């Protein structure tokens, strides 16, 4: 059965006065080629759109109808008519791989639906994309060179004309006079933007539809530096070669009036520093901050920041009063002091940390050495077991069971050695960091950096801070002794008992700082791997 083809032609622009003969020439050549090759054309598609980016509606319709089985081939002048981007090109190759698209015909390009043919087609698509990218780069390079020469690379402003013969921008002797008069009129500060639009409309300067210019369009004209000899390109100001129609002084006067008449945007108030840290102790809603100004009898105005409940609860009418930021700052500082570490205790802890780290390394090294000795013994047993099996002194089943047992014990010991070597000092650096952080809390509480206080409060107390009757409280959940993490809770309790107990014993176990889990893990791991009696005996 003869294959059915869709004929597809395309030009890169929908402007009627550009590439006028492109579509007609393609249709003529392709129809002749189809007749010559005896191709059955079921439908013709004409598209006037660039293939640089995916999303062409007619091209997508062609592919959709091919997927629906209405045709199995496409006839086009060249692969670059089908795709100049990787998405469309990949779609065509994918349809060829799936078998939904069986043939592609081009008068100026050879293609067969084989691995080599698809390879050459992919090269053609890649070359087409490269040509588009290169054209874009060359165009941008040319525009940058025009900017360096002082030539504006775009459509001329109102009051100027693009001279197509010299490729320059020249003054429109008629419109430029009215633009200058509009600037002079607005500089007197007696006219609004709408009045200037009406004035320009009365002089014949309107939109393409004949309507007066909008306020934004008039504002753009009045604030365009093009009229005094400069122009903006890519956000940067450049000196132009074109003839100015107004002076720089007149332009500056217009800008002053625009600034004076412009509506200043109301500055958005920044969220208060402690917002998001506290919640209401009565209704549980969030705490927000707001500015309040108080005017004294002598006319002086003082501004304060207050924090209060948002009162957004639907069923509870919250009676909680507001509290000033200075008072809240004092309470947060006092709360941070309760979990801070005094400098003398920090020094003692660092000494003990250094001592414990050395002892931990020594003890862990002893356990590791003992475990390695056991591994060597197991290796010897495995070798003797193999020798006994080869000498047929033991049965195969016994050999397999014992070998599995010895190999399992050996692997467990090896893993324990790796884990102990990694963990023997892994707790030291976090401990040092915590001591330094707890010591710095004293400075954080005493300084005026409110943001630092908020960060540390959030880290230590989390979302457990409430505000009730102007007092800051640390909420405690039911069946919970403290909402703090263990290390902060212990430090807080230690500061409360510091006057009645030995300082080091309050903060540290008599055994030292090293986590007991490490010693226990080392001992128990070896015991489980090789047996308690062999270690203790």
Notes on the protein architecture:
Helices cover 53% and strands 13% of the residues. It has 537 residues and is of the alpha/beta class. Helix 6 packs across helix 9 (248-261), helix 7 (193-202) crosses helix 8 (215-222) and helix 11 packs parallel to helix 17. The longest helix has 48 residues, at 343-390. The radius of gyration is 42 Å and the shape is flat. The model is unreliable at 518-537 (pLDDT under 50).
Brief synopsis:
With 537 residues, the protein is of the alpha/beta class.
Question: Which characteristics define this entry?
Answer:
alpha/beta; 3-stranded mixed beta sheet; Hect, E3 ligase catalytic domain fold; 14 strands; 4-stranded parallel beta sheet; 537 residues; disordered C terminus; flat; 4 domains; Rossmann fold
Topology diagram in text:
Blueprint: E1 4-11, H1 20-37, E2 40-48, H2 57-67, E3 73-75, H3 79-82, H4 86-98, E4 103-105, H5 115-148, E5 160-163, E6 168-171, H6 175-187, H7 193-202, H8 215-222, E7 230-233, E8 236-239, H9 248-261, E9 279-280, E10 287-295, E11 301-309, E12 323-324, H10 325-337, H11 343-390, H12 396-423, H13 428-446, H14 450-461, E13 465-468, E14 471-474, H15 486-497, H16 503-507, H17 516-530, H18 532-536
Parallel strand pairs: 1-2, 1-3, 3-4, 9-13
Antiparallel strand pairs: 5-6, 7-8, 10-11, 11-12, 13-14
């Amino acid at each position: 059965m003869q294959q059915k083809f869709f004929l597809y032609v395309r030009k890169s622009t929908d402007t009627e006065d550009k590439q006028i003969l492109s579509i007609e020439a393609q249709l003529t050549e392709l129809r002749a080629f189809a007749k010559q090759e005896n191709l059955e054309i079921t439908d013709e598609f004409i598209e006037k759109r660039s293939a640089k980016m995916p999303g062409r509606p007619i091209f997508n319709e062609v592919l959709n109808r091919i997927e629906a089985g209405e045709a199995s081939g496409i006839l086009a002048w060249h692969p670059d008519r089908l795709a100049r981007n990787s998405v469309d090109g990949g779609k065509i190759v994918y349809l060829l791989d799936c078998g939904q698209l069986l043939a592609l015909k081009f008068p100026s390009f050879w293609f067969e639906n084989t691995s080599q043919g698809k390879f050459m087609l992919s090269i053609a698509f890649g070359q087409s994309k490269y040509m588009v990218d290169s054209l874009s780069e060359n165009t941008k390079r040319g525009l940058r060179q025009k900017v360096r020469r002082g030539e504006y690379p775009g459509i001329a402003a109102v009051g100027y004309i693009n001279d197509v013969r010299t490729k320059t921008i020249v003054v429109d002797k008629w419109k430029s006079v009215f633009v200058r008069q509009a600037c002079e009129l607005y500089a007197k500060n007696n006219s609004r933007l709408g009045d200037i639009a009406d004035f320009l409309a009365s002089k014949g300067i309107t939109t393409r539809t004949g309507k007066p210019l909008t306020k934004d369009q008039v504002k753009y004209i009045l604030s365009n530096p093009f009229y005094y000899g400069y122009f903006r390109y890519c956000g940067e100001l450049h000196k132009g070669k074109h003839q100015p129609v107004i002076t720089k002084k007149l332009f500056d006067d217009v800008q002053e009036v625009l600034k004076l008449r412009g509506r200043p945007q109301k500055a958005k108030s920044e969220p208060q520093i402690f917002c998001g840290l506290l919640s209401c102790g009565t209704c549980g809603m969030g705490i927000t901050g707001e500015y309040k100004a108080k005017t004294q009898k002598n006319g002086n105005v003082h501004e304060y920041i207050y924090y209060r409940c948002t009162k957004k609860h639907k069923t509870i009418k919250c009676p909680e009063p507001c509290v000033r930021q200075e008072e809240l700052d004092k309470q947060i500082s006092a709360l941070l002091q309760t979990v801070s570490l005094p400098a003398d205790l920090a020094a003692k802890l660092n000494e003990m940390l250094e001592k414990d780290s050395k002892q931990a390394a020594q003890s862990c090294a002893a356990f590791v050495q003992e475990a390695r000795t056991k591994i060597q013994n197991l290796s010897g047993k495995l070798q003797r077991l193999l020798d006994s099996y080869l000498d047929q002194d033991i049965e195969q089943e016994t050999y397999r069971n014992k070998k599995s047992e010895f190999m399992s014990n050996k692997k467990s010991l090896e893993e324990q050695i790796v884990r102990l070597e990694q963990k023997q000092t892994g707790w030291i650096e976090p401990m040092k960091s915590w001591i330094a952080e707890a010591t710095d809390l004293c400075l954080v509480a005493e300084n005026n950096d409110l943001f630092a206080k908020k960060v540390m409060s959030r880290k230590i107390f989390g979302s457990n801070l409430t505000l009730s009757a102007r007092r800051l409280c640390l909420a405690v959940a039911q069946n919970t002794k403290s909402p703090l993490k263990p290390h902060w809770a212990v430090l807080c309790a230690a500061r409360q008992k510091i006057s009645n107990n030995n300082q080091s014993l309050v903060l540290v176990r008599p055994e030292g700082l090293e986590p007991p889990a490490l010693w226990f893990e080392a001992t128990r791991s070896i015991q489980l791997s090789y047996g308690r009696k062999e270690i203790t005996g």
